[in-house]
Structure formats: structure tokens, C-alpha cells
Input
Amino acid sequence: DAGVIQSPRHEVTEMGQEVTLRCKPISGHDYLFWYRQTMMRGLELLIYFNNNVPIDDSGMPEDRFSAKMPNASFSTLKIQPSEPRDSAVYFCASSIWDMKETQYFGPGTRLLVL
Amino acid sequence: AQSVAQPEDQVNVAEGNPLTVKCTYSVSGNPYLFWYVQYPNRGLQFLLKYITGDNLVKGSYGFEAEFNKSQTSFHLKKPSALVSDSALYFCAVRDSGGYQKVTFGTGTKLQVIP
Output
């Protein structure tokens, strides 16, 4: 399996622009997670889905952030409008509901908002 | 509410010496405990976990961790450190009675000195 795929790997944009991050989870996984990692705040869970349905979005920082999962093989995290403080590495992870509950992380998208 | 603490921001150890990375947790029920490792510019990778059973858990790359219920700890250990073990290590916890929301610690940077 190719693992969790994220695109783009790097994104540089200007303040006010819309940013869309994409994730393809591992086939057969029914949970998908979006995380943000910064030096100041560490690893933060933004939102997670189960069977394409958002379960907990309490970590989404503001209304500027939105996430969708239109089908089992694709999810997006959108920031509109973007701000410099959104600069971070955004990770997508997926897992299957079984005894192991291991999360498999993608390589991340490094976002820089100027 | 569940929480996890990694009291050390950084741990330095000489190559060949044993290493320990500390983790304590708090949950209302029984814990599921995890260790993940993050190499530079990469996503998190699963190392090992405790769900139930033997308190000593063995994982990837020669790492092991001991679950201590009375001390609410889950310290990561390795008998002989390698330079290639240098990375950022995350402890994570989930209450066995909850949903699939895992709480990650702030991470401990392990530096193995040649």
C-alpha cells in the first residue's frame, strides 16, 4: 500500500488567499484525522471523520478552517482566507477500527503564509 | 478528560548507553497507550502500544515500554541507543471507553551523541 498520501507537500501563499490541502487515506481505513504541528503548540488534532462523517471538529481553530470528506478515499482541509499564523505543517492520518488503533500518518504539507 | 505529559523537552544520551523517554498519563478508565516517532521532515510513525496484557511491550527498532498502572506511566526504553534513534518521540493516550480521539504529548527530542 502507498500509505497516506498528502498534497501538496509544500505550499507558499500570500495572506488572504485560499489554501486547500488534500489527503488520500489508506484504502479500507474508516477513520481520518487532520492535525496541525507548530513549534509553539505542538501537535493539535483539528478534526476527525468516521466513515466520511465529521465526528469531532472542536480543534478547528476558526471559521476560516473547513474540512470535508466527500468519499472514503479523499479529504480536504481548506483555509479561507489564510493568515500568517496558519503557517504550520498539516498532517493527515488514517486508521481502522480494530484492536490496534494505530494511526498512519502522511508525510505532511508544510504551509507558509506570507 | 484524558491527558498525557512528557516532562522532558530533550533527552541526550551517548551512543551505546540505555535510553529512557518518560511519559505519564491521566484517563478516567483504562488507558490505551502509544509511542510514535517523528524523523525530520516526516510524518509520525507508530512504534508500539499497550492495550492490555503484559505490562512490558516490545516494538519496532528495539524499543520497548513498560506500563505501570500505579504510577500512571508508560516510559519508552531501549537498552543501547543508536545515533539513528535521534528523533522526536511522542507519547499518546486514549481512554478505552471513548471514541477514537487520541491525545498526544508535546514530544521529547532524543539526541544520541556519537
Remarks:
- The first strand of chain A starts at residue 5 and ends at 7.
